[in-house]
Amino acid sequence: MVRSIFASLVIIFVSASYSLAAGDTVTYEKDIKKILGEKCMCCHGAGSPLMEEFDKNKDGFKKKITGPRFDTYSNLMVVVNGSDAGALMRRLDDGENTKDGMPGNMFQNLGCSAEERAANLGKIKKWVGSWNLKKRKELAEDELKAITAPER
Description:
- The chain has one domain (26-145).
- Helix content is 53%, strand content 0%.
- The chain has helices at residues 2-23, 28-39, 41-44, 51-56, 58-63, 73-77, 87-92, 114-128, 141-145.
- Helix 2 (28-39) packs antiparallel against helix 8 (114-128).
- It is globular and about 40 Å long.
- The N and C termini lie far apart (41 Å).
């Protein structure tokens, strides 16, 4: 009887620990989509060009203050671990990972205060899994695989 009670308590403890750990997982649907919706969609929303179109006329789109489209998970993944891997990280970095200490050109848009920017960046870094400022062609296969960025 004591063994079965002990075994039950162990199972409950392990299950509770797993649930807490799973609840800490940052996902696109649960966390990142909201941040992007509040902070990025005015320039990267559904009316923005897909990356292929943006690449053909970067200067023209930049003059219109329009960036590539990040309105869906698959569109965002282009700049996370797709053809333009690392671009999101380079643009949102706070300068802690750069040689010159300068933040990325979109870091300011992560919030109205230093605290909000830090909190949003922290969530995005946790979601990405491996914060790497390298360009796609510079990333080793293991570095690319370390970028997790779960959708759900």
